[in-house]
Amino acid sequence: MRLLQRYILGELLHVFTFVLSILTVLLVFVGVFREVSESGLGPLQALQILPYIIPSMLPYTIPATMLLSVCVVYGRMAGDQEITAAKAAGISVMALLAPSFFFGAVVSVCSLLLTDQVIPWAESNILRVVTAAMEQMLLDKLGTEYQASMGSNTISVHEVIDKRLILPTFRYVPSGSKRAITARAQEAELLDFDLEKREVRLRFIGMQVDVPGQGRQKIEEWEHSFPLSIGQAQPKDRHINVREIQKKLTMLETKHGSLQQERAITAALALAIGDYSQLGGRQFQGYDLQLFDNRFKFFRLRTELHSRFALACSCFFFVLVGSPFAVLQAKRQFLTNFFICFVPIVLVYYPVVFLGMNLSKTGTVDPAWAMWVGNALMAVAGLFVLRRVTLH
Fold first, then answer.
1. Residue 245 and residue 254: Cα distance in Å, rounded?
2. Would you tell me the crossing angle of helices 282-329 and 242-273 to the nearest 10 degrees?
3. Is 390 in contact with 96 (CB distance < 8 Å)?
4. Do the Cβ atoms of 31 and 57 come closer than 8 Å?
5. Alpha helices in 146-281, H assignment, sequence order
6. N or C: which end of the chain has fewer CB within 10 A?
């Protein structure tokens, strides 16, 4: 029995590795094209981020690959009457399906570790490569065109030496103002280029600032961070590990309680002094907006936390359906078995998962159970097919 189960497990591993490699290679080019189009990277930078794109593609390919693998292996075994021969020798079907269930459980754990540890690490490396590329692209543009835009701000230079900008002229609009300010300096230095915060920090030396309505002012040295119109404002939820998500959830919950307490105290003071107009003023509108934004972030992160576990475990439930179904069909056309299984999954499982995800992000339902509804449906279908296989 151990020999037969090792044989089945080896077949599953071979098919899984082969199919996963093909699908991942195809999707990697899609991921690289997306990063290049979003960040404007060159061929060299695209090759540098290529190894880090692979982990991001695996969560999309692993479940379908697991389903195809069990359909191929068990469909061939059933078509070649190997399942019938094993049953005639007194071996139960459950013993033959056990390797696939074990393999599905192991892949589910690996998928969870991949989304929790490997993908955040890969995204940080991608951000590092993109940051270095963007910094060099900005310096190259200033060196060749002598002008560049940073958000709503523009800078022109006379010459660029390493990270030093000679005779720069900077035109920017301060936050909260509609009037542009023009600043000229003898020299400026690019101190920091932070793509994660979407800002670049410059230090100006020997600076003259023309402020509308205030005349010209002289500043010996000035450091300032200016916004960028490239990159992401903050990392996506799927690029944060579980520990960081739990920390952020705790902080958001604490902040929510503090905001509610402040709002209640302010309302009590307004009622005590009889200032009823304050209850509908801007201060309470600000509290409402902060509370809404806090709850939105809280529900979104909590949905990500539960969906990460549920989607990782989907590999096991895909196997629970695909393995007995392939045995039940007993056909050599493994692609037929795969599509018969995969089409209902696409039409039922993923819409249910996405619906639960959207409702959970708005706080309509609890993601602790909503994200597992799709897996529960898969479990019911898998146990139904498994019962038919064991009976016949």
1. 14
2. 150
3. no
4. yes
5. 242-273
6. C
**Strand positions, DSSP E, the chain:** 147-150, 153-156, 159-161, 164-166, 169-172, 181-194, 199-211, 215-227
pLDDT confidence of residue 231 = 45
pLDDT at position 312 over 80: yes
What is the rounded distance in angstroms from the CA atom of residue 363 to the CA atom of residue 302? 10
Identify the DSSP state of 114.
I
How is the chain split among helix, strand and coil, in percent rounded to 5?
70, 15, 15
Half-sphere exposure of 309 (CA within 13 A, CB side): 12
pLDDT of residue 279 exceeding 90, the answer is: no
CA gap 50, 39 in Å, rounded? 14
pLDDT tens digit sequence for 136-170: 677 777 777 777 766 667 778 888 887 778 888 87
Query: CA torsion sign, 226 to 231 to 233 to 235?
Result: negative
- Encoded tokens for 359: 């409702």
> For residues 139 and 164, what is the distance between their CA atoms, to the nearest angstrom?
9
Confidence of residue 198 (pLDDT cuts 50, 70, 90): low
Q: Are 202 and 172 in contact (CB under 8 A)?
A: no
